[in-house]
Amino acid sequence: MVYFIGMFAVGVVALTARGLYFDIFRWTEWGSVFAFLPAALLLFSIERRQQKQDTAFAGNGAGYTSRLSDRQSTGIKQIYRAETVVGSYRRTFKQVWHRWFVAFPKVENFFLNLDFNLSHRELRFEEKAGQRLWSNQTEWTIEESGETVGDIRTENTVRHAVEFTEVLRMTYRGETYQIRSPRLSRRIEVRRDKKTIVTSHRKRHLLTFDVPDFETQAVLLAGMILFRLHFRE
Predict the structure, then answer these.
(1) What pLDDT is stored for residue 121 in this prediction?
(2) Which helix (H) or strand (E) segment is 128 a member of?
(3) CB-count burial class (<10 Å; 0-12, 13-18, 19+) for 39
(4) Nearest to 4 by CA among 49, 50, 47
(5) Element (H or E) spanning 189, and its range?
(6) Do residue 33 and residue 90 come from a single domain?
(7) Co-location of 225 and 203 in the same domain
(8) Are residues 160 and 101 in the same domain?
């Protein structure tokens, strides 16, 4: 929605300036600009429906599941085991303009901060500021109950590029994990010492998680959700 409103504003300013300076006025061009308004209204209704569907989701079968269709708002999303809520997460923004900025195409993964409540543990993944201005490296700190306990960073290597694999490297309380997925796959796996220990799969907006020990591996589930939001699908 914000994208179409922005395009409408830019179009109005451009056509007005051209009309004032060059005395050029064409109804067809103004009609094209005003077409952005119904497009914005349509997109707004779609976004609202996605948000309501995420909020109304109440579990799906056995295992751990969550619904993620709305990737930009700050609404709370639940994580279920069968039909029982076992956690929640939400995206946060430090500045109001950050929320509007990510509404434009191809930048929705900027300013990505996540708050989790998992198994009575409060986790926060906070993106370090200023990195994207000078490199393609992105890094987050992991905070648990206000204490910094680890970090996550993108791992960009020639090998991963050749294999068309996207990778995050996570360090949590002294343990190192690799969160990875081929670009054309809907499966995410978390490895430790080259062994896969937990996985996630996406079917449309439904996320499923295979986490054998949720009490101790909840942070890995959180890492896979961060992966989903950071890498564009």
Answers:
(1) 87
(2) none
(3) middle
(4) 47
(5) strand 187-192
(6) no
(7) yes
(8) yes
pLDDT of 107 over the 60 cut: yes
71 neighbors 112 (Cβ within 8 angstroms): no
What residues does 88 pair with on adjacent strands?
78, 117
Pairing of strands 64-67, 147-154: unpaired
Residues 214 and 185 in one domain: yes
Alpha-carbon distance of 118 to 111, in angstroms, equals 22
* Pair (37, 82) in one structural domain: no
Per-residue pLDDT reduced to its tens digit, 119-169: 788 999 999 986 555 566 899 999 998 899 999 999 988 888 888 899 999
Same domain, 45 and 14: yes
Q: Which domain holds residue 83?
A: 59-230
**Above 90 in pLDDT, residue 89?**
yes
- Assess whether 189 and 122 both reside in one domain: yes
Enumerate residues 6+ apart whose C-beta is below 8 A from 84: 59
To which residue do tokens 């999303």 refer?
77
pTM, entire model:
0.81
Tokens 């690799």 -> residue: 178
Distance CA 190, CA 167 (A): 10
Give percent of the chain with pLDDT exceeding 70. 75
Which amino acid type is present at position 84? T
